[in-house]
TrEMBL record:
TPR repeats by residue range: 378-411
Keywords from the named record: ANK repeat, TPR repeat
ANK repeats: 86-118, 119-151, 156-185, 186-218, 214-246
Matches recorded under InterPro entries: Ankyrin_rpt, Ankyrin_rpt-contain_sf, Cul2-RING_E3_ligase_SR, TPR-like_helical_dom_sf, TPR_rpt
Protein species of origin: Rhynchospora breviuscula
Identification of the protein by name: Uncharacterized protein
Length: 435
């Protein structure tokens, strides 16, 4: 049988993959028939892959095309756990897409329910992340371990559910006695990740289930993000404001660092005096934390070499520890000044830290310094615009982005930011909500 022009060699792979993704079984069979010019049809299909290296079987599973998955297994004779180039099974693709029907079909035909990807993500993790309690129950009913984890970074299903703010799946996992304090290899717990995400309902669930409210100092993370309701929740559950975080900071010190006096006054009566703060009062703590002595004490254990401090600052930023990153960028700026230099990138990076912490005034100050040091650097203008947007100075923000575009007209990020600033300015002039 000769190949039809419609299914030419140039198009057949794309047609097959598209049909698999759309779930068009009739078209899929038609393409397979067109390919079937003798034996080895399965091998031909295995050779058709998308840019990610995924076969049509995986594409069908990822899109929840159960009928096509059935065709692969029952008519083409593919193994139900047919592995992609990345070592992932169709079941895992279906789980990542949240396709319960496809998952049930594959499992009923022998798919391994605990097969993972290279990061340790399993179908149970995917169901937990996706907020599908029925799927979680189904997988647990098959004997999948509730605390399954193949990788120290991924963590348990409860951990990822807390990280993504999914109370419905967390409830099921906790009912099946998931380890409420189960930490990843880098020490984060479900409670810490719930607080990091600002998920109050998830935080309450974990506390009710017996989570250790002092492990990894979730109170410090709540203070860093100024989550008043979560701070109160943790304190009511017994969180100790005298417990320092891994960087040696007390919660009251962190309250000063985020410039939130309300949090400081909430914590002060519950915190025991420390000898290094000679004036144990709200004002005394503020003066101490803002002193050079405090900053030197924090960084002294991390070295005073400029390159080392810059690496530490970047590491903390990548972990979203913006308070720590801000402190180390400040130290780097001080060391840079001692060398008689003026690195605009350090001010730009500290501006970004301040922006992430919600401090628009300081973010703008640092951006202006970066611009002064490198007046032809587009990023300095972008930082200026971002800070002005935070301060709701939309007209000035628009101008800053426009100045940046004059230096780098093809900067897509700058173009998008400029359009947003103009749109916010228009809405502001019309009295519309700019949220």
């Amino acid at each position: 049988m000769a190949s039809s022009p419609f299914f030419s060699d140039k198009n057949k792979a794309k047609k097959l993959l598209d049909a698999a993704g759309s779930g068009n079984l009739r078209l899929f069979k038609e393409i397979v028939k067109d390919l079937n010019e003798g034996n080895g049809i399965a091998d031909k299909i295995k050779g058709f892959k998308d840019k990610k290296g995924d076969n049509a079987f995986h594409v069908a599973a990822a899109h929840g095309s159960t009928a096509i998955c059935q065709y692969f297994v029952e008519e083409l004779g593919f193994p139900v756990d047919f592995y992609s180039d990345k070592g992932e099974t169709p079941l895992l693709y279906a789980a990542m897409g949240g396709h319960g029907g496809t998952m049930r079909y594959l499992i009923s035909h022998g798919a391994n329910p605990i097969a993972s990807d290279k990061t340790g993500l399993t179908p149970l993790h995917c169901a937990a992340i996706d907020g599908q309690p029925d799927l979680v129950k189904f997988l647990l009913s098959l004997g999948v371990p509730v605390d399954i984890s193949f990788n120290y970074v991924t963590g348990t299903p409860l951990y990822v559910a807390a990280k993504h703010g999914q109370p419905s799946t967390m409830e099921v996992l906790l009912e099946h006695h998931a380890d409420v304090n189960g930490a990843t290899g880098i020490g984060f717990t479900p409670l810490f990740m719930s607080v990091l995400g600002g998920y109050l309902e998830c935080t309450k669930l974990l506390i009710k289930a017996g989570a250790d409210v002092n492990l990894k100092c979730p109170l410090g993370m709540a203070i860093q993000n100024e989550l008043i309701d979560i701070i109160k929740c943790l304190l009511e559950a017994g969180a100790d404001p005298n417990v320092r975080n891994e960087y040696g900071w007390l919660p009251v010190e962190m309250a000063v660092m985020v410039k939130n006096r309300d949090i400081l006054e909430m914590l002060f009566p519950l915190t025991s005096p420390v000898p290094e703060v000679q004036d144990w009062s709200v004002q005394g703590i503020c003066q101490y934390v803002n002193s050079n002595a405090f900053q030197e004490k924090i960084v002294e254990n991390f070295g005073k070499d400029l390159a080392e401090v810059k690496v530490k600052a970047a590491d903390f930023f990548n972990k979203k520890e913006y308070l720590a990153a801000n402190l180390f960028y400040t130290k780097a700026i001080e060391l840079d000044k001692m060398n008689g230099s003026g690195d605009a990138a350090l001010f730009s990076n500290r501006s970004l830290c301040c922006h992430r912490m919600g401090d628009g005034d300081q973010a703008l100050k640092d951006a202006l310094v970066a611009r002064r040091l490198r007046p032809e650097w587009p990023k300095a203008f972008y930082r200026m615009g971002a800070a002005l947007m935070l301060l709701e100075e939309y007209g000035q923000a628009s101008q800053a982005f426009m100045d940046g575009l004059r230096l780098d007209p093809t900067n897509i990020e700058m173009q998008k930011a400029h359009r947003e600033a103009v749109d916010c300015l228009r809405k502001s002039d019309l009295g519309e909500d700019t949220e």
